[in-house]
Write a structure and sequence with these properties.
Largest sheet: 11 strands, antiparallel
Number of domains: 2
Number of strands: 13
Structural class: alpha+beta
CATH superfamily of the largest domain: YwmB-like
Shape: globular
CATH architecture of the largest domain: 2-Layer Sandwich
CATH topology of the largest domain: TBP-like
Number of helices: 5
Distance between the termini: 63 Å
Length: 247
């Protein structure tokens, strides 16, 4: 009897440990954010029009030579990207690259730019991924590459901004305030700030669904929902921790 009891306890602990690890991975993995936002739009009956993932990191280089060295390292690391030549204007240096992604009707961008400040060069590295079509299978195939790109570019220092935008046709009667509440409830989110008009609503909220957040008026937020009624229907945009595409 005791053996059975201890065996059951052992199995339960293993199960809870595995569950905790899987939840932690789901919370921390940046590649999960975009599909979660897309899924929310699809389950709310919206037609997904576009989505994006954006990250940037600030660093310091000591000289233009260091910048060029960093740029050459990026070109060597990402040879499949189409790289621009070095651009200089008003003391600023920039190099950028683009890689087409036909499966998503989109592309990915890498931008490195720097400008002088006192005795150093303030430098930013930016990664952006945008798409106008969605396929879960295609995302699953691409996400290992995405994780690798983010690891190489930011070494876990870049904050991830994810967005998805959908559309309801004029055949569907949408009350923007009600639809915003329905989307927030999917993420068990608590409203922090709200801007509400007859045909427009923007809500900033906080959810435990994601561990990262930003501060607004001394309060944490990591989810934004924006809805706008237009002549042809209603656009709906979701972003974490904020919306980074026009809505």
């Amino acid at each position: 009897m005791k053996r059975t009891f201890y065996a059951m306890i052992f199995i339960m602990l293993l199960f809870l440990g595995a569950l905790a690890r899987s939840q932690a991975m789901a919370l921390s993995s940046p590649t999960e954010k975009v599909p979660q936002l897309v899924q929310a739009l699809q389950e709310e009956g919206a037609h997904v029009q576009k989505w994006s993932l954006y990250s940037r990191h600030k660093m310091t280089v000591q000289s233009p030579q260091d910048f060029i060295k960093k740029a050459k390292s990026l070109q060597k690391t990402f040879p499949s990207f189409n790289w621009s030549g070095l651009k200089t204007a008003n003391g600023r240096m920039e190099i950028s690259a683009v890689n087409k992604l036909p499966n998503f009707h989109g592309e990915e961008h890498i931008i490195l730019f720097s400008y002088p400040l006192k005795d150093t060069w303030v430098t930013y590295i930016i990664y952006e991924l945008v798409g106008s079509s969605w396929g879960q299978k295609e995302w699953a195939q691409f996400s290992p590459k995405l994780n690798h790109r983010l690891d190489v570019l930011f070494q876990e220092n870049g904050k991830i901004f994810a967005c998805a935008q959908g559309f309801y046709s004029d055949k569907i009667d949408i009350v923007v305030s009600k639809k915003a509440s329905e989307i927030l409830s999917r993420f068990h989110a608590k409203v922090i700030e709200k801007v509400e008009e007859k045909t427009f609503e923007s809500v900033s909220a906080y959810t435990n669904h994601w561990k990262d957040s930003i501060q607004t008026n001394g309060r944490k937020m990591n989810l934004q929902v924006g809805l706008r009624s237009v002549d042809q229907g209603t656009t709906v945009t979701i972003g974490t921790p904020i919306i980074t595409i026009e809505y």
